[in-house]
Each structure stands twice: as C-alpha cells, then as structure tokens.
C-alpha cells in the first residue's frame, strides 16, 4: 500500500513538473531527484532491490510520452546505482553523480 501511495505521489510530481515550462536540465534534475528520493524511501523501509526495480518499472509504465521514455531509458537502468548510493549520499548528490543535475 505504501508503495502504491509513493508511486502515485511521484507520478503527480513528475506530471506537474512536465506540464510547466521549465528548462530541460532543470526538468531532468527535478525528475531524477524525485525518483531518487522515492528509491531512498524504499531503502529506508528495507525493501529488497528486486521490489524497488519492479515498483520503478510500474511507475515508468504510468507516465506519458517523453516522460515515460526518459524514465525507461535513463532512470530505470540506474535504479541499482541509486539504491546503493542513497544510503550514503543525498538524492541530489546521486543525481549529480549520474549527470542529471549540475554540481
């Protein structure tokens, strides 16, 4: 149930950011940080990586058009890296390391 709620919130945040006239770099960074923050919540709840990967895939499937493409092509392949990193660094730092946010 918590997973569904977190995914719904992430989808709403991502769609809100997607609908605004924001620069691409800010959009990619904001989306990555939101995604990484959600992964961090799963890590904090001690969910296994397999469950996190499944939930992330389900989230990407819910998103429209270009947002779905970005999620599938750029964020999903990084779920394991984010999962391993967010216990040591912030979601913002994880996204900087991945190149989605400026330092």
UniProtKB/TrEMBL annotation:
Gene3D superfamilies: Saposin-like (1.10.225.10). Residues 25-103 form the Saposin B-type domain. Residues 1-19 form the signal peptide. Keywords: Disulfide bond, Signal. The keyword NAD does not apply. This is Uncharacterized protein LOC114329029. It comes from Diabrotica virgifera virgifera.
């Amino acid at each position: 149930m918590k997973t569904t709620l977190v995914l719904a919130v992430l989808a709403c945040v991502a769609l809100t950011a997607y609908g605004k006239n924001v620069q691409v770099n800010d959009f990619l960074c904001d989306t990555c940080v939101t995604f990484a923050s959600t992964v961090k919540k799963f890590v904090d709840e001690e969910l296994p990586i397999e469950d996190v990967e499944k939930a992330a895939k389900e989230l990407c499937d819910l998103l429209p058009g270009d947002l779905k493409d970005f999620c599938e092509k750029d964020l999903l392949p990084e779920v394991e890296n984010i999962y391993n990193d967010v216990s040591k660094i912030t979601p913002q730092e994880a996204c900087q390391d991945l190149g989605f946010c400026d330092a």
